[in-house]
Design goal:
By secondary structure, this protein is α+β, with helices and mostly antiparallel strands. The chain has one domain: Trna Endonuclease, Chain: A, domain 1 (3-Layer(aba) Sandwich). It has helices at about 5-20, 30-40, 85-100; strands at about 45-55, 60-70, 75-80, 105-110, 120-125. The chain has a 5-stranded mixed beta sheet with strand order 1-2-3-4-5, sandwiched between helices. The radius of gyration is 14 Å and the shape is globular.
């Protein structure tokens, strides 16, 4: 079993590998598939496009919300390929963390020249 810090470190390594291999400008689905492959290759258990139910007044609503990648049933990875990350992207991931009762999520924007910029790869804690 990994600590959350070890787990996010491994995930970030896979994210950097995908970005350095593919570069910016592709669709989110391409980055998702490549990242899923890298995470599996690094020995991590993942699920892709997991459904997120919403409980409202005791009623389970199946609304079609989907997590991009859930790693080791602990860390949500939300993938974007946009000009720049906005507050709404951060709020979306935080909401997913709350709905799933997970503690940590990574928000990554692959449509950048470098992931070193602190606004391209963001760790969000619930």
């Amino acid at each position: 079993m990994f600590t959350l810090n070890d787990l996010t470190y491994k995930i970030r390594g896979s994210i950097f590998k995908v970005h350095s291999t593919l570069g910016p400008g592709l669709l989110e689905s391409v980055y998702e598939a490549a990242l899923a492959y890298e995470l599996i290759q690094s020995g991590l258990k993942i699920t892709v496009q997991s459904g997120v139910p919403v409980n409202y007044n005791g009623v389970r609503l199946e609304l079609g919300f989907r997590l991009d990648i859930l790693v080791e049933d602990s860390v949500i990875v939300e993938i974007k390929s946009v000009e720049s990350l906005r507050d709404v992207h951060k709020k979306q991931l935080l909401t997913y963390l709350k709905l799933t009762e997970k503690k940590i999520g990574l928000l990554v924007n692959f449509n950048v020249s470098s992931l070193v910029d602190k606004e391209s790869l963001i760790r969000i804690i619930n």
